Predict the structure.
Amino acid sequence: DLPAVGEVATRSAELNGRRRARAGLAELRALCREVDGHGLVLAHSGTLLGVLLDAHDPELDAKTRHVRAGCAPLGGEVSVHRALGAGDDWAPGPRPAVPAGPTLHRRET
């Protein structure tokens, strides 16, 4: 249930932000609304902020580009990460944000 995960992750980010201010959190919240994202993700150490998007959204690439462009003025490194996918799960840098096909592993006998 991706919307529920996004809601919980956003609430966690907001609650943590009350204890420790996060630069860019308000801007990220606005970007998330603009692309109809599922929510925000925040590493409580403050080293990572992000927007949760559905990998099966037909507008995913456009939404990813919009969020990346909106994050650029915030400073720091901007990257795209895909989780719970197959194959190349972590994909830094510009690339299509669609799930990879199945990865086949061959076992030597």
